[in-house]
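# step 3/5: fold
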Amino acid sequence: MKPANGLNTPQIIIGAVVFLAGVLIYLIDRPPDQTCFTYKSRMNISLFDILPIIFGSVGNFLPSFVHVFSFIFITAGIIARGKKDYLIICGGWLLIDCAFELGKNFNSWPLKIIPDWFLGIPFLENSKNYFMHGTFDLTDMIAIFIGVTMAYLFLVKTMERGSYGKE
């Protein structure tokens, strides 16, 4: 069973640590003008020209894996109660991440539904640019599927003891 507060803290921590590793990819291996949070930052937080590239070609698709894996873990750590919830969470994030990746290839529909009022809101303000200038990559889709699969397998391993076998 989960503790009284309903959180699975180890899962949340795993998700956060993996997410932070993903942030390092953008800080170290990507030029700052290609990354929203470094480009828009008031301080120069990019380490692109300071440190050598660490992730190499793996850094091209690793963010897709990291995103889906970490958000599944964080979501599961907050709301999941067992394997059935894990499957629902994994399926939901699979659909979200795949929709965003496919939206870069078939961008006419997402561009029609993104409201203009997103322009003044941090993070949402780049939605249209993401779909207009993003590039669909089959390797990213594969990384998403691997991330979802690995997340589910690791979630089952990190379940609270009393919840094994719960559906």
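# step 4/5: annotate
Residues 9-163 form one domain.
# step 5/5: archive (pending)
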